[in-house]
Recover the amino acids of this structure.
């Protein structure tokens, strides 16, 4: 069985992850940092110290999340490229399941739906491959 649909869904998911990573890194991170600095201007010394510390910690979480999504997008591109036709790759199944959960935990509904569809189609074609292998062995 051809894995074209799963390959396209994983590639679409990876493209979506790349887009969200770039928006997070170059849009949201900079905006949050600039707005935090504006909000802290004119604050008293004690609030300035705690506010700056909190803003830097949150900014580092945003940056880490963006970099994580960027690296995972590249990994998902590689997963999509290495999907093999007419083979059951158990590691791909595990990877799609884990990545689906990560997408759900990060509240990325579009990414979750793309990877969930890829996972469901992958499992259904695995079943079809197993059934065709049983028929070949029976004959």
């Amino acid at each position: 069985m051809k894995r074209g649909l799963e390959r396209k869904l994983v590639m679409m998911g990876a493209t979506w992850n790349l887009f969200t990573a770039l928006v997070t890194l170059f849009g949201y991170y900079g905006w949050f940092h600039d707005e935090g600095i504006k909000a802290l201007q004119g604050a008293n010394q004690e609030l300035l110290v705690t506010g700056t510390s909190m803003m830097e910690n949150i900014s580092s979480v945003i940056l880490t999340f963006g970099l994580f999504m960027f690296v995972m997008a590249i990994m998902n591109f590689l997963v999509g490229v290495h999907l093999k036709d007419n083979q059951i790759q158990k590691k791909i199944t595990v990877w799609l399941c884990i990545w689906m959960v990560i997408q759900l935990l990060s509240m990325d509904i579009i990414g979750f739906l793309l990877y969930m569809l890829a996972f469901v189609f992958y499992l259904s074609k695995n079943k079809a491959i197993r059934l065709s292998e049983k028929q070949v062995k029976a004959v």
Q: What stands out?
A: The chain has a mean pLDDT of 92. The chain has one domain: 4-138. The two ends are 19 Å apart (CA to CA). The chain has four helices and no strands.
